[in-house]
Amino acid sequence: MNYHMVMARREVLVQLDDDLVDRLDRVASEQGTNRSELLRRGAAAVLEATERARADRDLQDAYRRVPQDPAFIESAVHLAAQTLPAW
């Protein structure tokens, strides 16, 4: 996501306990930003992690439906064995 673009924003009410607000404010101050920006970054990170996890699951499911060709796997194992460093 490009944070330099101006995007429409909507104010959202979020309830947080005092300790969490204090910790957020401390981290925001250390990073030279504000609580809202820190929460935006956190929300974006959660969404990105969720999307990546979903993509990983989709890829794994695809390999379960159509597994690798055993000949391809055997060739990869053979190639890996040939390229291992001599210890």
From TrEMBL:
<dbReference type="GO" id="GO:0006355">
    <property type="term" value="P:regulation of DNA-templated transcription"/>
</dbReference>
<protein>
    <recommendedName>
        <fullName>Ribbon-helix-helix protein CopG domain-containing protein</fullName>
    </recommendedName>
</protein>
<dbReference type="InterPro" id="IPR013321">
    <property type="entry name" value="Arc_rbn_hlx_hlx"/>
</dbReference>
<dbReference type="InterPro" id="IPR002145">
    <property type="entry name" value="CopG"/>
</dbReference>
<feature type="domain" description="Ribbon-helix-helix protein CopG">
    <location>
        <begin position="14"/>
        <end position="41"/>
    </location>
</feature>
<dbReference type="Pfam" id="PF01402">
    <property type="entry name" value="RHH_1"/>
</dbReference>
